[in-house]
Amino acid sequence: MYKLFIRSILFQFDPEKVHYFTFSLIRFLNKIGFSVIFKALYEVKDKRLEREVFGLKFKNPVGLAAGFDKDAKLYKELSNLGFGFVEIGTLTPKGQEGNPKKRLFRLKEDSAIINRMGFNNGGVLEAVERLKKNNGVLIGGNIGKNKVTPNEEAVNDYTICFEALFPHVDYFVVNVSSPNTPNLRELQDKKPLTELLQTLQDLNTTKSVHKPILLKIAPDLTDDQLLDIIDIVKDTKIAGVIATNTTISRDGLQSANKNEMGGLSGKPLTKRSTEVIRFLSEKSNNAFPIIGVGGIHSADDALEKLEAGASLVQLYTGFIYEGPQLIKDINKKILEKR
Questions:
Q1: Which among 216, 244, 333, 337 has most CB atoms closer than 10 A?
Q2: For this structure, is 178 an active site residue?
């Protein structure tokens, strides 16, 4: 129904406007009682789907990636669609508009999206107020820096977000891999990244309960850079890695919008993100958990990532193209394989 009817209508309109319309629609439907219907349609309840990863218990291994619910406005309603966890953000200390519109593009022929949103969000404190109402949804907090903050002061922005979110999220994700904030990816270099993660980890150890800290990396890193990531995880003792963010590559694209600036997500990323997962898993001897994300448009895509070494998976573009049935399909396929 989604692909044949709903998606064909939604895809006639501007993607960013459709995003906000869909938010309003999902919220409205949940308010008038559709939450029960959504759960009946898409939720797969089975103890065999449960996963314990970096000390947290996930009801199933399929999560929603950061970027969809940036401001923690819809995490409860989205969890009713069958997700095992929801990652909010990327959040910054101060609210910011992000990059000028138009900044979100569908690449229908490639089953992909290019975005250059630029960490548009209302600021971490607004999100905290919404998270105070959470009742049982496992939440990841994806944090970044404001556009106007120079890299040499970036650690302060991440620290502010970490402190504000700490009582309200189950795990943290340090985002230094978005291509849409100027010079942000320079923080992936070994020295500044180690300093940033160590600062957050030191802060983490001062808390009575420690929260897992993960690093989200770009798919465009070289093998040598990926080996550096393994070393950094070992040295800082963070909990794990999310592989991968969007790519700046445009290889093999067919769509008219293929040359738009920004990060590419969707099917063109399927193979590369799985390669990164497998590389990290094999070269580290499975030393840390990996959340696999990038180009998951089918249950088989998800299973490939799990078999490559991911402990959990996340959806974004595949969710937009395939609809919530994809969540159910992945969970059912996992059960078939057990």
A1: 244
A2: yes
pLDDT tens, position by position, 207-245:
999 999 999 999 999 999 999 999 999 999 999 999 999
Contact 335, 49 (CB under 8 A): yes
Is 191 a known ligand-binding residue? no
Buried b (16+ CB within 10 A) or exposed e, 7-40: beebeeeebbebeeeebeebeeebeeebbeebee
Is residue 69 a known part of a binding site? yes
295 is in an annotated binding site: yes
Residue 338 pLDDT exceeds 80: no
Q: Is 149 annotated as a binding residue?
A: no
Q: Which domains does the chain possess?
A: 2-337 (3.20.20.70)
Is 1 annotated in a binding site? The answer is no
**pLDDT per residue as tens digits for the range 65-81:** 999 999 999 999 999 99
CA dist 285 to 193, 244, 282, Å?
A: 22, 19, 5
Distance CA 280, CA 275 (A): 9
Dist. CA 298–CA 245, nearest whole Å: 18
pLDDT of residue 65: 98
Q: Does residue 206 sit in helix, strand or coil?
A: coil
Helix (H, G, I), strand (E, B) or coil at 222: coil
Q: Is 82 exposed, middle or buried (0-12, 13-18, 19+ CB in 10 A)?
A: buried
Q: Of these residues, 79, 177, 178, 273, which one is catalytic?
A: 178
Taking alpha carbons only, the member of 320, 297, 287, 283 closest to residue 114 is: 320
